[in-house]
Records
---
Amino acid sequence: MKEIQLEFKIKIYQSLEELPLSSQNLILKAREAAQRAYAPYSGYRVGAAVLLGNGEVVTGNNQENAAYPSGLCAERTAMFYASSRFPGETMCSIAVSTISNSALSGKFAKPCGSCRQVIAEYEDLSGIPIVIILDGSSAITVVNGIDTLLPFRFKKEDMGK
C-alpha cells in the first residue's frame, strides 16, 4: 500500500481592505455582477469577475431557468464569455461573490464541481495557476490554483489525447 498526503495553502482575509487593490476591484466587480443575476427561483445570486492577462475584466452571473438544470453558474458564464470575447487570452484570476436577500451570504462562495472543472481547463490553457478569490460575509478566501479546490481533476492527458 502507498499513502499520499495532500497539502495546500489558503489565505483568509477578514476584510476587503486587506487584499491587494487589484483583488479588491475584482471582488467589487463580482459583487456588482451578482446584483444583476437572474435568480427568480432560488433567490441566490452569484457574480464572477475574471481578470485576463491583457488587463480586461469580464463578468458573469448565474442564470436560472424554470427548466432546471438549464441555467448556468456565474463562474462558467464569465469564463465562457471571456474565452469567446478574448480567445487564447490568459485568465489570471477569478473572484466569486454570492448574495442572498440583498446581503453577502455564507462564509465564502464555493464553486460547484462543474465550475471547478471549467476553471481547471482554462488554467491548463493559460499555463499558470488561476488565483481564485472566494468572497463571503465573514471572510475572503484566496487560493492559488484549482488543484487546491479540485485535487483529482480531469486533465486532457487523462482523456487519451
---
Amino acid sequence: MNEFHENLWAPWRLDYVQGLADDKRPPCFLCDYAAQPNDDASNLVVARRESAFIIMNRFPYTNGHLLIAPLAHKADLVDLSDDEMTHLWHLTRDAKSLLAKVLKPDGFNIGINFGRCAGAGLPGHLHIHIVPRWSGDTNFMSVAGDVRVIPQALDKLCTLLRAASQ
C-alpha cells in the first residue's frame, strides 16, 4: 500500500454533504432563488426570463454544469402550462447556446431526473441539467477515484456567463 497520498481539495462539496442531513435547510433552494432576484449574482443565477431561470449547479459534474428551472415550484412536465413548457425549453436552448459561445465544448448532455431513484436531488422542483462535454473529459480521476476535477471557480464562470447573456 502506498503511504503517500495526494489530497484533492473540493471545499464546496461540504455544504452539499452536510445539507443532505440538515432538517433546517429550506425545502427548495430553487424557490428561494426564484424569489430573490436581487441576489442573483450571489445565488449564481445566470439569467431569468418570464417563467424560468438558469442557475449554475453548485455541485457540478463538470465546468459549466447549468440548471434550467421554472420559477414556479412544479415537480413534473405535466404540471407545466403550455407557456411554461415553451419558456423552459427556449431557455434551455439559450443556455446551451450560451455555453457553446463561452466555453466552446465538443458536446452536451441535457436531461431531467424524475424521482430520487433516477438521480433527482430535488425531486419536488423540475429542473433540466445541461452538462458541457469535451473530448477526453472522462479520465482516470472519475473512473479510479470517483473524483471530479472542475477547472474553473463557479463565481468566475457565472460572471462570464451573466455578461455573455446580456
